[in-house]
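Lab notebook, bench 4. The sequencing result for the construct came back, and we need a structural model before the next group meeting so we can plan mutations. Quick request posted to the team channel:

Model the 3D structure of this chain.
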Amino acid sequence: MLEGGANDSVQFAQVQLERGPQASDFVVTDFATERAKCLRYYQRYHANGADQIVASGAITRSDAVDAFVPIAAPMRTDPTFSNSGSLTFYRSTDTVNVPSPGFNHQTGGTNGLGPGTGIFETDFSGQPDGHGGVLVLNNGSSLIADAEL
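Done. Here's the predicted structure in token form:
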């Protein structure tokens, strides 16, 4: 039992939980390895303070844009993309606001695109196809690649 004043604290470090009566050796994993394991399941791009280019792509039909999103690390399976906030597709002549949530089809790097890429397709209407451009994550918005179980 701990006794002390209101400003006392207890700190724990290097704790490892074990199942069963036997403890295994304590394993310390470096930050880069642990981060790489996490990025296999979830990656988030956030525009904090300014708009941020997150992908390049093209209008492939009058009602869709396909964009290739670079993935920070290979994911365990094809990610599902989602967004909060707004995305804008900029081309040389004008801009197209991408509806939110903005995705009707998404796939990742295991479908022939190679590791490090994801693609998503979004719907809108009345645009000429064949125009290339960049997909911008507007300030305060997030784009999420999720490959959870």
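The longest strand covers residues 52-61.
Will bring this to the meeting.
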